[in-house]
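Journal club prep — side note

Before the paper discussion, L.F. wants everyone to see what a predicted structure for a comparable chain looks like in token form. Sequence:
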Amino acid sequence: MSTFVKICGLRSAADVKAAADAGANAVGFVFAESVRRVTPAQANEATAAVPSAIRRVAVMRHPSNEECRAVFDEFEPDVVQTDAEDFAHLDIPGHIECWPVIREGNETIEAPDIYLYEGVQSGSGETVDWARAADIARHGRMMLAGGLAEDNVREAIRTVRPWGVDVSSGVESLPGYKDYELIRRFISAVRAAEKEL
């Protein structure tokens, strides 16, 4: 089965095109405090030409309903991604998918169908305990995040067997600046790992 690949922290139409051309399944836009933060208008402009098969993900962290509505007014994501506990108080329109983030050390939260598993701090480049993640990955469809890059994603896939992988800092030349060759090489490494399973 093909591993789902999300490239996160994109900021421009060129970033999105590079991810799409390399074979990404989803593109993520950060609306939380981050060097990768964009405005809803920027995300909307960046995805104007994105193929419909690629999911557009609004990445948030403890947002209010007002903050969500401000995003939805200018940018129509296919998915909202935020910490699992946040969804209890959010009114997300029914046509938008919800991808909860389960953070390492907080595995008591029940895993839904699709979810992300990562460390305490997003975008830090820190990997999680892959052995622990492998146990959790048996439930639902886990997207493994945190510290992934071209040089370790094959081992991560072999060890954890996640449904998908999510990368941001691992495909950057500088914080917040995507390196298109690194994106291509990361996805190539993912596809190579699939053949070894």
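L.F.'s comment for the group: The chain is about 30% helix and 20% strand. Keep this in mind when we get to the figures.
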